[in-house]
Design brief:
With 246 residues, the protein is α/β, with parallel strands linked by helices. 38% of the residues lie in helices and 26% in strands. Helix 3 crosses helix 4 and helix 4 crosses helix 5.
Length: 246
């Protein structure tokens, strides 16, 4: 399988705080990677570096043979191929559902309004939000907002999807709806990198699980090995605490 994304010796600091300490990771086309670890381990910073929402201090991010950290790279063009779903939705609260899902297509991809609308509705149907297309997003529940956010990202026709704790801001009863959408997306063959605290999702959907702690990747393996026979003491300690809480 071909690598769609290569992360090479990536570092990132905020002031004196070193958040990422030499991250190396390869993601193959069609893989689902779940990143787990304690708060403050660098998971979300790593994800935000992958489309240069945070600028790395050093290292390389190679996406489809393009170095995103190079000044010669057309970052805006490549970002259209990297979908991102945020913890807090990041929808435009002054727009309705449909306009949220067409704006980027029209402004960035230069699709006409008719084509953008057809594409948006097709993805809203996939996440069962077609009955809400003219609703203002402020009237939606958290789970509905997140499904709209996923539709908006997919409407841009990305080659990879990044999810940053997509269920952590949701009421517990809404979590299942969003995870079901993500499971279906994983089954469709979309390349996905998911920062999550939903261990069951990682067990069921991930091809590989990455455990991070204190700015480093300590362990990468198949979910059955990470969860049943972790190799690192720190991974075992983390999972024991997380699973005991449940």
């Amino acid at each position: 399988m071909e690598n769609i994304l290569q992360i090479k010796n990536l570092t990132k600091s905020f002031g004196k705080q070193e958040v990422l300490k030499g991250i190396n990771l390869n993601i193959q086309k069609g893989e689902v990677i779940c990143i787990i670890g304690p708060s403050g381990s660098g998971k979300s910073t790593l994800l935000r570096c992958l489309n240069i929402l945070e600028e790395p201090d050093s290292g390389q991010i190679i996406f489809e043979d393009n170095d995103l950290t190079s000044v010669d790279t057309n970052l805006d063009e490549l970002r259209t191929k990297i979908g991102m779903v945020f913890q807090n939705f990041n929808l435009f609260n002054n727009l309705n559902v449909l306009d949220n899902c067409t704006l980027g297509q029209i402004k960035v991809l230069k699709r006409n309004k008719k084509e953008a609308t057809e594409i948006a509705i097709s993805f809203l149907k996939k996440v069962e939000m077609q009955d809400f297309i003219y609703k203002n997003v402020n009237s939606l529940s958290g789970g509905q907002k997140q499904r709209v956010a996923i539709s908006r990202a997919l409407a841009m026709n990305p080659n990879i999807m990044l999810f940053d704790e997509p269920t952590s801001a949701l009421d517990p009863e809404m979590v299942g709806d969003v995870l079901n959408v993500m499971r279906d997306l994983a089954k469709s063959g979309m390349t996905m990198i998911v920062v999550t605290h939903e261990m069951n999702f990682a067990i069921e959907a991930a091809d590989k699980v990455v455990f991070m702690d204190e700015g480093k990747i300590l362990e990468i393996n198949k979910p059955e090995i990470i969860f049943n026979n972790p190799q690192e003491k720190r991974t075992r300690e983390f999972l024991r605490r997380v699973i005991d809480k449940k």
